[in-house]
Amino acid sequence: MKTLTRIAIALALMVIALGAYTRLTDAGLGCPDWPGCYGALVAPYTDQHLAHAEQAFPGAKIELHKAWNEMVHRYFAGALALCIGLLAALAFWRLKAQRPWVVALLGLLLFQATLGMLTVTLNLRPLVVTGHLLGGMATLALLWWLALRLGPAPARPRAPVYLRWLAVVAALVVVGQIALGGWTAANYASLACTQLPVCEGDWWSRLHPEAAFNLLSPPADNYQYGVLGYEARMTIHVAHRFGAMVTSALLILLASGLWRRGQKAMALGLAALLGVQLCLGLANVVLSVPLAVALAHNLVALLLFLLLLTLNHGLWSGYEVTEPVGRRALALAGFSGHHQTSGGDAAVTYRPGGHDPGPRQLAKSLVGYQRPDGHRPGVSRGRRHQPHPRSTYRP
């Protein structure tokens, strides 16, 4: 199941990247029908197919390169759907613990298929386009989380509470910023501001949030290239820039907390992706949203989100041990903490001292230690072992 999950993750990344490429090349309506293209399963490429397409869709402008962009995106989406179906069958056959995750994946798959159809039939309505982006991200997130669950559990103590919740808030803020970026792209507001750091002129006096964030959007026959006025588009763009500032400050705070705790590789990775993303955002403004830079901006945001998912899994999945032990065992284990002694024993929740020993090291430190009453404390080293009645081990 691990291999199949990795294949599904690769396909989901390709689907999101191809979706961004389709949107950035204005190919969202390259095929006016769904799920085929001009009534066929391939884009028209022969004279006979072109004649049939012109007869079936007399008002459509046939642009073959855009039609192929859209159909390649749909082919990869179909392959992903097949892979998720195989994952569901495998989970219901052999892996009972993973069934809730694959059921959620199947629900998201149906949701995404519906939004894919509505994207075409509603002519790129911004709410549908943004929801389609977020649905793709949610699908990838569930697949990524499933892969993390199938992998080995982190062999380190659970992180402090403040750091865990800071990572959760950071992940949610990044999702909000990605949604705001999707709303900016769906309303064609990427070029509404061409100066730094915020926008040109007296932008603050022309903000129009009511029109900018009207999720239903004004009625229109076609939403391609946008239907909002300049003030509304500028408001969306400015909101995205301020969101980037808030997101950057929060991620810098999280990276500094990880660095102080000793997770330097994760802190450096987070800071590096944030720096690249900020540079790509600035390049989009200076260079007027070139295709390669805009596509990279989408993909780096996705990588940043996946890194935060991995971080949250690691911070929340550590182990925690509480056990009445003596001072000698604490010293052997290399742990320290506030405790009250009574007859040489102490009820202590283990917190890391100079290093982070894994469960095996901790168990070895306590093996052989005997309390004055002859009791040898037990420590569970895995999920299959039953812990001592007075101890808890939660991986």
Describe the structure.
- By secondary structure, the protein is mainly alpha-helical.
- The longest helix has 32 residues, at 230-261.
- It is flat.
- The protein is built from twelve helices and six strands.
- A four-stranded antiparallel beta sheet has the order 3-4-1-6.
- Helix 1 runs antiparallel to helix 3, helix 1 packs antiparallel against helix 10 (291-316) and helix 4 (99-121) packs antiparallel against helix 5 (126-150).
- It starts with a helix and ends with a strand.
Provide a compact summary of the structure.
The protein is mainly alpha-helical. It has helices at 2-24, 47-56, 64-93, 99-121, 126-150, 161-186, 209-212, 230-261, 264-286, 291-316, 327-333, 359-366; strands spanning 320-326, 335-336, 341-342, 345-349, 351-352, 392-394.
Give keywords.
single chain, 395 residues, mainly alpha, four-stranded antiparallel sheet, two-stranded antiparallel ribbon, 12 helices, 60% helix, disordered C terminus
Structural class: mainly alpha
Give the percentage of residues in beta strands. Answer: 5-15%
Share of helix among residues?
55-70%
Radius of gyration: 27 Å
Number of strands: 6
Characterize the biggest β-sheet. 4 strands, antiparallel
Average residue-wise pLDDT: 81
Give the oligomeric state: single chain
Anisotropy-based shape: flat
Strand order of the largest sheet: 3-4-1-6
The string of secondary-structure elements, in order, is: HHHHHHHHHHEHEEEEHE
